[in-house]
Every structure is written in C-alpha cells, then in structure tokens.
Write a structure and sequence with these properties.
The protein is of the alpha/beta class and 257 residues long. It contains 8 helices and 11 strands. The strands form 2 sheets. Strands 1, 2, 4, 5, 7, 8, 9, 10 and 11 form a 9-stranded mixed sheet that branches. This is PNPLA domain-containing protein. GO terms for molecular function: hydrolase activity.
Length: 257
Amino acid sequence: MTRARPTLREWLHEGPFALAMSSGFFGFFAHTGVLSVLEDEGLVPSRASGSSAGALVAGAWASGVDATTLGRELEALRREHFWDPGLGAGLLRGALFRAKLESMLPARRFERARVPITISTHDVAWNRTRVIDAGDLAAAIHASCAVPLMFHPVRVDGRWLVDGGVSDRPGLRGVPERERVLFHHLASRSPWRRKNDPALEVPQRAGLVALVIEDLPRVGPYRLGEGLRAMKAARDATRVALDRVIEGSIVSAPAAS
C-alpha cells in the first residue's frame, strides 16, 4: 500500500504522466541522463513537453529517438557540428543545427510522434510564448533552441520565433491542466536565484512533481567535455531520487561530485 507521502517511483507508477523538461543552456545532456533512467525503469511518459534544451530532448524522444541513442549523439557532439557564424540577428545561422535535427528525428512531424508533444517557443513580434503542437517538429525544436544573440531567429508559419525559455522557462505552457506532470527542473545560473531557495523557481501546479538535481556540471559551447559528466551525474541522481519521498511537490538529489 502506498504511503501518505509516496516516493517518486511510487508516484510515477500510480498512473499516466506527462514529462516536461525546462530550458537551460546546454542542459540537454542532463535531461538525457534523466530520461535514460526513466526508460531503464519502464517509466514511459504518456505526453512530452519542453522548452529550449528540454524541447530538444523531449522532442527527439517523442519522435522515436531513445535515450541511449540520443546519449551517443551528444557524446559525439563537437562545436563544429553547430558552429556556423553568419550575418543576422545572432551569431550563428543555425543551418548546421537544423540539418542535424532533421537527420536525427525518425518522425519529422508532430502528428507522427509516438506520444503527444508540445514545444514552447517565444514569438518575437508578439513578445509572448507560442506553443507548437503540429507541423514540422524539427522547425519547432530549432526555434525553441534559438537562444537570442547566439542563434538567428527562426521563421515558422510566418512568425519569427526564438528560445522558448524567454517566456516559458519550464516548458509547461502546452501541457493540459488535468495532466499529472513529472517536471525536470534545471536550476537557473542567475546569481540572485542561486542565493535563494531553488524551490522558488519550480512552478506551482496541481499534479506536478519536480525533480531537482543540484550542482550539475556546467556545460557550454566551449565546455562540451563537461556534457558527459553532466549526463552521468543526472543519471546517478535520478536513480537516487526515484526512491526518495516527495516533499511537497519536489524531489531533490545532489549530483555526484
């Protein structure tokens, strides 16, 4: 019989759940580590959602890329695979990144994904979140990952879009309110947020449980070597977190040093 305060594993086994993954600069390594444990444990989400780095991992998985395959793709990632400077509203054109996405996704359209998937982007002209749930999946992921000033904006259905984390950092806007949600939260690197309770960043929503992994290695375009450490740390912490009791709406576990 499930105790009054279940462990994360028990909560996930209680019924279908959506998996939402937040934005976070090059956080796709950590997201993939979390996803690999869910797959290993047979805890498969019935819906996926994400923003920026979370959109990449959630979208790739919904398209049919398993966590092991995605991990291998990230392990082989080098800066030259996406570094294509060009004139425009950002340093990188994004053409290499888009080509990589298109070659990697088994299902190229939302309608062919194995579970419903929603991607949060930010509409530049309207200055608000635009959730995409139909059409070209690679285009939506590309737009959601288009970090302002780093990548050129991406035109989708006649709208100029950038990183979904600008206005929907959790990547939750497209998940129906009635859904149970496992939310993998990548903590902000903001100095103000770092000195405050990380739980303040977790959205308050009925039916949501947030997995917070603290002190993950920092990854970036010039620190890709830290990516595998981040993936392993997230994987190890998630295994620990599965058997921890949910406190309020949060399960936290430290990354291994």
